[in-house]
Every structure is written in C-alpha cells, then in structure tokens.
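Protein in question quoted in full.
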Amino acid sequence: MSFAPPPGSTEELHNRLQGEPHWGYTIYRTTFSAQADTAFPTILRYLDACVKKSLFSECAYYSEKSPGVNPAIYQDIWARYQSTVVEDAAQFAGASIESVRDHFEAVVEGQGRRDFFNSDRMCIVIDEESLLTLLDASVEALEAEGPDHVLETTRFVKVLEAWPILDQYDSFPGWMKCSPRALWDLWKMMGDGEEMRNSWEDIHEMHGGVYCGP
C-alpha cells in the first residue's frame, strides 16, 4: 500500500527523531502554593493531552485523503514525545521570564545544542497568571470533544524563545502567550529555524493576545 507523505514539518520531525531520542518542551514552573501543588500534575497531563490531540487530529485529517498518510508515522512521533519539567521552588519561585531564559539558555549552551532542535530553542513557563487560567482544565473533557482543532483563548501558557532576535523598533518581547491547544502548531511553526516573532505576529487582537494557531 502506498502512502502520501505527511505535511513537511511533521515529516521533518519524524526524520529528526531518527537521530534524537525524544522531542517536546521543557516546562518551567515558577508559582508555588498549595493550590499550585494540587493543580500542577493535572495541568501537565492536560498539556500533554493537548499536544496528543492536535497531533492525531492532523493524522486523521490527512489519513482521509487519497492516498492517506501512514498513521504509523504519527504513532512513532507520539511515542517519542517527552516533556521535561523544572520545578525547583528554591530557584524558580516567582522567577521572571528573563531569569528563566537565562537558565534555559545556559543549560542548552552547556549541552552544545544551541539552535540544534526545537526542544533547545523554546521552553514553556507556567507562572501564577498562566496557572489561574488552567485550574479548570480537564483531560477528560478534552478527550470527549470531536477531532477538530478548537481555538482556545482563555487558557494559556507562556512560551519563550531562547536567544530571540529583538528589535528596538517592534514590540515582540521574546515570548508569547500560547493556547495549550496550539503547542503542536507552534512546534511546527518554529521548524527550520523560524523565529517566534513570526508566530507572535499571527496573534489576532480578538484572541486577547493568545496564540491560537494560524
């Protein structure tokens, strides 16, 4: 049986994973309280579930075409997904975006992986502001939805770019609010060394400053 190739960015990730053990985001937690302690494990599960749903929604869409893509490619990509969680209260409680970026860049630089892979080019920050939007997030409700991508403007995490190119004449701050549902889309958008500012510029005013995909 012949299969069509998946979208270019998805095919690129699958090819890269022949030489990388896994892919995914590093997630920094900067808010620590009893409420955060209770909610954080569920939030992590929700973020993973959002990536999985978006990935397999893409798979379903392209599988219906003739010829369809090979679902095994998507299964293999998901099997290699692994988020890395950093939640050291002593070091990161109340930490600013800039201090998280400094730490992330130092870790990546120390591993000799600057601009090597998307996992090394951006990371997620869950601060108090983000946490409050995610308290009612439900994996079960997400999984009960249909396969279509849903624009979500009320829940967000903050995604920062390592070594961003900042211009004094524009307003891109080197990070942006991103809907958890758009994390897979953002990963693809950042492929080929693309700058986060290009995704940030796609944020429509009606979305309240939250990146929800193209």
User: Anything to note?
Assistant: The chain has a mean pLDDT of 92.
